[in-house]
Amino acid sequence: MEGIGLLILICFLITFAPPVIFFIAGLVKRRSNKRASTVLFILGTIWLIIGGGICASIMA
Description:
The protein is 87% helix and 0% strand.
């Protein structure tokens, strides 16, 4: 992978990796603390929307 391919891969990882981690952590926390899991789900959604928009604008 050289040049633009590596840049696209990094943008996808920045966009999709943290929301997946937040979602998994929210599912784990769901049993013990519903409020904390809700916060993690909201953070994951916000990251996906904002991160996706920023990476899409960089690649366009």
